[in-house]
Specification:
Layout lengths: L1 H34 L5 H7 L1 E2 L2 E2 L2 H32 L3 H7 L4 H11 L5 E5 L4 E3 L2 E3 L4 E5 H4 L34 H18 L4 E2 L21 E2 L4
Antiparallel strand pairs: 1-2, 3-6, 4-5, 7-8
Helix pairs in contact: 1-3, 3-5, 3-7, 5-7
Length: 233
């Protein structure tokens, strides 16, 4: 138990230090762009205004942090998870090379089978009933997206990766008013990346005997490293 607490404390300290370092980095970048604006996103955000109101520094920091996670890590994990799924299912890569039109629906199956975002935290705005449970207003709720995408009531053979799965109503990008604004870009980036990987790295496969460690997170899903091999051109 003492070991566990020590590890938890160390992890918390590392997390705090990383947050401080990232905040300092973005603050310096914001100051730099304020004095020397360019054609980049932060310069555009600094100049943007609605009804004469510009974004505050905390709002700019929040925007930068959101883009770093939502626009980078999730898509990176989507691409890595796709390679892992394909490599684990013999014959799938060869089939996609023969039928590249299957790549978009293959990406949808990756999003379902290994959802880059596994959970999302919410607060209820009103009392609601979910199943047999009454959830009061203002209650914290964790939506387990990864679990919903393996729901046997919604998907046949949910524990199987199937590139032929049609009508794939997964929740990897959320739903309704909370649907991810970056979904079209993430899908495009994943398609371009997979097309390049499959065409440029013949014989792509997992390194034999490679040990893969999942990221230590209940929110995002991916591996710390993905050792692969391929045949030289």
């Amino acid at each position: 138990m003492i070991v566990s607490q020590t590890r938890t404390g160390a992890a918390s300290e590392n997390h705090t230090a990383a947050n401080v370092e990232m905040t300092e980095y973005f603050l310096a970048l914001i100051d730099q762009r304020r004095s020397r604006p360019g054609q980049d996103l932060i310069s555009t955000l600094l100049a943007a205004e609605i009804d004469g109101q510009k974004l505050t520094v905390p709002e700019l920091l929040g925007f930068c942090a959101l883009l770093l996670v939502a626009g980078n890590e999730t898509t990176t994990n989507l691409i890595g998870n796709a390679v892992l799924c394909l490599a684990e299912n013999p014959g799938t890569i060869d089939r996609l090379l023969r039928e590249p039109a299957l790549i978009p629906q293959t990406i949808e199956e990756v999003l379902r089978f290994r959802s880059p975002v596994q959970s999302m935290y919410r607060l209820t705005v009103a009392e609601t009933t979910l199943g047999d449970e009454v959830i009061p207003a203002g209650a914290p709720v964790v939506a387990w997206i990864g679990s919903a995408n393996r729901d046997e009531r919604q998907f046949q053979r949910p524990a199987e990766f199937d590139v032929d799965r049609g009508h794939n109503r997964h929740l990897a990008f959320g739903h309704g008013i909370h649907f991810c604004l970056g979904a079209p870009l993430a899908r495009l980036e994943a398609r371009i990346a997979l097309e390049a990987l499959l065409s440029r790295l013949p014989g792509l496969s997992l390194e034999q005997g490679a040990h893969m460690e999942r990221m230590d997170s209940t929110i995002v899903y991916g591996v710390e490293a993905l050792p692969v091999r391929w045949q030289p051109a």
